[in-house]
Structure formats: structure tokens, C-alpha cells
Amino acid sequence: MTYFSDTWDTLDGLLSGRSAVFAVCDENVKPAGAALGRCKSGKIPVKYVRVSERQKDMKLVLEICGWLLDKGADRNALVLAIGGGITSDLVGFAASIYKRGVKAAYVPTTLLAQVDAAIGGKTGVNFRNYKNMLGTIVEPEFTFVCSAFLKTLPEPVFRQGVAELLKAFLIENQNDNYRKAVRYFSGITSSTQYQDSTLLLPYIQSAAAVKEKIVAEDLYESGLRRVLNLGHTFAHGIEHLSRKWRLLSRPEPIPHGDAVAMGIVLAARLSRKTGLCAEPLDEQLREDFLSCGLKADCPYSPKEILKAARTDKKAEGEILHFVLLRGVGDVTVKDLKISEAIRAFENE
């Protein structure tokens, strides 16, 4: 269940009556962790962690498990994750394996986490430079989305969530939400505009609803849920390559949101190359993403990316489940051999 609010106080009610709550909080949002000390439900132990894609690994998961053990957390514990998508992935995974599984709840503090990462029950950590190679699927007790957190985000971090929000509307374009969102985010010219929680909350709720609806029908990704991977087959290959071969001009890996934007453009391009989409949708999406402040031009060739995708957790031998587009709000899953996809791109 996802709850939405523009104030932090609503969390009190969700924690009411719970006597064994343990919180793991991203250091970047320490005030949120400190506020737990003022909860009516009583003082909550808080562990602060420094997280990044580099630190999203089993070492930190085991550190969280060790902290829970030291604090005496038993099978009745509720582990609260406060932070972005990396935090919910790490903490959710730790909770799912600690004492063979305790409850977790998420308080996502980034736009990316609020519309995607903290919804749907997927947890995971990176392994050998591959994205979320180890993980579980366990629904959280609840997800509490407080849009007021977005006021604290640096603009580059905020923008990364725009890619996942637009992805949701490319999958289901009810009320022309995709075009409305592009107009809104491309029109942002100051920090006060993107921090306006009153204007943002309807977009967040609509995007989250798209994911919740699909997950409710297919929690374990046996069919329908695969459409949520729009752009991600390419994005995970892009992220792998950027972590493995960081250039001097790019000391940090490509952020997830930018990788998703690049991946969606490539998916639309593959849709056109395979005859699924007649119009040049890839060029239109590229322009849309660029106007919203995202990077949409990939530094790697499709061949490099698809070779890296061979070891993606969703690959089945030489087959990848590509999410392709017939148009905005009209997606389908098409199974292709990696060699077939490479040939499609090479036949320019």
C-alpha cells in the first residue's frame, strides 16, 4: 500500500502501535532520521548509511543485518528505509534475508524512488558491476511518499526521477499524462518550480499508480510486469559499461535516470527497425527527454550495450525480453536473440 502526503506528520499514524521499529537512513537526509525521535510511537533506533551505486553491494547489506542483530531486532521487527532507491533496495534486501525475513517499509526521498524504486517489492544489490544481480521480491508493509522531501533535492538528482516518471506514462498514457508531464518538466526554469510539491504530487501519484496496477497483476514478473522494464534492458547495459570503463571526462558512472532515457530512445529505435513502429518515435522521445534536462544520447554503440546485456539477470540464454513501443502508451514485449537485435541496429 502506498500513502501520499505533503507533510511528514502522516508517518506517525502509520507507525502507531508498532513497538519494534528500526530505521536505516541515508546520510543525505539526516533530518528525516532525527525526526523519528519525535514520533509519538516512541524513540526509534536509526542507523545512518552512506550509499551510492559503488556501495550498493552485499557488504553493506550484511552491515545492516549486523546492526539489526546488535539492536536485538526479532522476527516482529519493522525495518524502515529512508532515502532514495538505492536505500530502499539495500534495506529491503537486508530485511528480506534477516532471520529469514522481517517486515520492511519505505520512505522514499527522491523522485526516482517515489515513482518507481520504492514501489513493487523488488530489492537488490549490484554484483560484479552488474545492476541488481542479487535480490528478492518482497512487498513492503507500506510505502510513504512525502512530496515535501523533493524540496531538499539538488536539481540533477531530481531530474533523474523524471525519466522513470515519463517511462510510466509511455507505458500507460491515461489523460495524455505523458505530454502534460513533458510540458511541465521542460518548462521548469528555476529550483522553486521543481520543488513545488502541490504541482508535483498529482504526477507522482499517477506514475506510481501505473506501476502499482501492473505489479498487483504480476508481482513476480512472469509476464505483464516485464513492460515496466521499458528502456531498462539497454539502461542496465549502459550502466554496466559506464561503471566498467569510466572515462577521464566522466569520472562518475552514468546516473540511472539518464541511462533509462538513453535506453528508451534505443528501444524506440529498435521498435522502428523491427517494423513495430512506423513513425520516428525515437527522435521525438529524444527531443522530449533533452527538453526535460535528461541526457538522451548514448556514448556506447548498441552492439556494445547488447553484448553487456548477455549477463543481465533477465536474459535467458541468447534471448532478451525487449519492451518495444508501437506509440506513446502502447508497449509490447518482444523476445529477440541478441544477435537479431544487433543486426537490426546495424541495418541502418
Q: If you had to describe this structure to a student in words, what would you say it looks like?
A:
The chain is of the alpha/beta class and 348 residues long. It has helices at residues 10-15, 30-35, 58-70, 85-97, 111-117, 155-171, 177-186, 191-194, 197-217, 232-244, 256-273, 281-291, 302-308, 338-346, and strands at 2-5, 21-26, 46-49, 78-83, 103-108, 125-127, 130-134, 143-146, 319-327, 330-337. The radius of gyration is 20 Å and the shape is globular. The model has no long low-confidence stretch (mean pLDDT 89).
* Percent range for β-strand residues: 15-25%
> Strand order of the main beta sheet, please?
3-2-4-5
Q: How many discrete domains?
A: 2
Main beta-sheet strand count, sense and barrel state: 4 strands, parallel
Tally of extended strands? 10
| Helix proportion | 40-55%
**CATH architecture label name of the largest domain:** 3-Layer(aba) Sandwich
Instruction: Determine the structural class based on helices, strands and strand pairing.
Output: alpha/beta
What's the number of helices?
A: 14
Which parts are unreliable, with pLDDT below 50 for 5 consecutive residues or more? none
CATH topology of the largest domain: Rossmann fold
